[in-house]
Amino acid sequence: TETSGSTGTPTRFMLDRSSNVHQFAAIWRVLNWAGYRFGQRYVDLTGYLPRNDGLWSYDLRTNCLHLSSFNFKKEHIPAHARRLRAFRPALIKAYPSAIALFCRWLGELGIDDLHPPAVLTCAETLLDHQREVVQRVLGCQVHDFYGQNERAALISTCESNRYHIHEEYAFTELVPTESDGVASIVSTTLHSRAMRLIRYRTEDGAEPGPCVPGRG
Predict the structure, then answer these.
(1) Cα(119)–Cα(90) distance, rounded to whole angstroms?
(2) Nearest to 47, CA basis, from 3, 93, 100
(3) Diameter over CA atoms, the chain
(4) Are 115 and 139 in contact (CB under 8 A)?
C-alpha cells in the first residue's frame, strides 16, 4: 500500500496480516475511549464511496452506516438527517472538514434534533472552529485521533480531550525542533514484520503537555 501523499509524493510500503490484526484492535480501543462499544451502530463519514453513486451504504459486519464525503451536497442533508434519525448511531466517525461542513449545513437548514452520543474525527487536523460547530450543533463531545497508513504512531484523545500516545502501538518520540514548543513526531514500528520503520520521521508536529492527574 502507500501513504496518502497529502504532504508530498506518496511512499509505498508493505504490511503483513498480523499488523492488520493489531491495527484493528488499536483502533477499536480508540473507539472505546470515545464511549463506543463493539457491536453498536456507528456512522462513518470519511473516504468511503458507496456503490452506484448512492448517498450511503450499510455494512452488516461492523454495524456501520457509511456516508460518502465525496458525494456530499447541501441538498442531500435532509435525507442524511432522516437516515441518521432512523439509524440512531452511538458514534459518528468523520473527517473534521466533513463533519464541520455537515453541521454548518444542518444549522443553516434549521435541523437541530440530531444528538449522537459522540463524534470521533481523524485523518486531518481538528481545528478549534470545527470542534466548536460540531459541539454546538450536535450537542456532544468531539474526540480525535492521529495516525498514518504506514502505522508509525497512534495518538488519541482521552475523556479530558487531551492527546495521549499509545505506547505499545509504536515507540514514538517527540523530538525537539527549532519551533518553540513544537516537537517532531518520530516513530519506530513494533508490529509490522514485513517492513519495519526505524525512527521514521512523519514530518508532523506535536506540543507536549500534561493531562489530568492519574493519566500518563
Answers:
(1) 9
(2) 93
(3) 51
(4) yes
Contacts of 132 (CB under 8 A, 6+ apart): none
Q: How many CA atoms lie within 13 A of 121 on its CB side?
A: 22
Q: Which helix (H) or strand (E) holds 27?
A: helix 17-33
CA 115 from chain centre, in angstroms, equals 19
Q: Which of 115, 208, 155 is nearest to 143 (CA)?
A: 155
| Coil, strand or helix at 44 | strand
What are the φ/ψ torsions at residue 44 (nearest 5 degrees)? -115, 115
pLDDT tens string for the chain (216 positions)? 556 656 567 778 788 888 888 888 898 899 999 999 988 999 998 877 766 667 888 888 889 999 877 777 888 899 889 999 999 999 999 999 999 999 999 999 999 999 999 999 998 999 999 999 999 999 999 999 999 888 889 999 988 888 999 988 999 999 988 877 889 999 998 888 888 889 999 888 888 887 776 666
- Given the C-alpha cell 453513486, which residue does it identify? 53
